[in-house]
Amino acid sequence: MGLYAIGDLHFSTENPKPMNIFGDNWDNHEKKIADNWNETVKDGDTVLVLGDTSWAMNLNEAKADLDIIESLPGKKIFIKGNHDYNSKYNDVIENLHIFNGVQSYIKDNVRIISYELIDDNSTLYNYASFPTDKFNIMLLHGDIYNSNDKNYIDLKKLQNKNINYFALGHIHKSKSGFIGNSKYAYPGCVLGRGFDEIGEKGFLV
């Protein structure tokens, strides 16, 4: 099984928010992402979609964005981001597992865990440690650097939960590091979403 992570796609098929004001290279960006996905991901692989998938304000508007993702290979595992205004994606897309609350999904020797961030995240921080029988990956959407961000995540409070890898969305720049023995990584937004994000972009697989 191949395991990939991508986040902050911010698709806007139904109500376009054109990004080619930043340059012609942004034309047809959904198609460019889909083409790269098709070249990289196989049917037996799993893709972690780390929040902020669509700009849509309701499920009907999001369907066009989700149809693109549904057509792509691999099993998709979604978490909700702060810009995902409707998380009932599993009502309109097949081959999908979406997380709400603290939940886990097991695939082979990997346990994938997620939590939808709320309030002060005390439920997450007080959650018991996870078993060590598998490689534990936690999916989160938030900012681990800025404690003033309302989506702040304090990874130090999670470093003794037997999490091997934190797959993170929300920060649009590709970043990675370690907290204790646990690796964390932001795949990054593959497109600039404002003038402050012009320049080279990246993602992690």
Q: Topology as H/E string?
A: EHEHEEEEHEEEE
The largest sheet, given as strand count, sense and whether it forms a barrel, is:
6 strands, mixed
**Unreliably modeled segments:** 201-205
Q: Helical region count?
A: 3
Share of helical residues: 10-25%
Strand order of the largest sheet: 5-6-7-8-10-9
Indicate the topology.
Blueprint: E1 3-6, H1 29-40, E2 46-49, H2 59-70, E3 75-78, E4 96-98, E5 103-107, E6 110-114, H3 122-125, E7 135-141, E8 165-169, E9 175-179, E10 182-186
Q: Could you characterize the architecture of this molecule?
A:
- The protein has helices at 29-40, 59-70, 122-125, and strands at residues 3-6, 46-49, 75-78, 96-98, 103-107, 110-114, 135-141, 165-169, 175-179, 182-186.
- The radius of gyration is 16 Å and the shape is globular.
- The chain has 205 residues and is an alpha/beta fold.
- It contains 3 helices and 10 strands.
- Helix 3 (122-125) links the parallel strand 6 (110-114) and strand 7.
- Residues 201-205 have low confidence and may be disordered.
- It has a 6-stranded mixed beta sheet with strand order 5-6-7-8-10-9, with no helix packed on it.
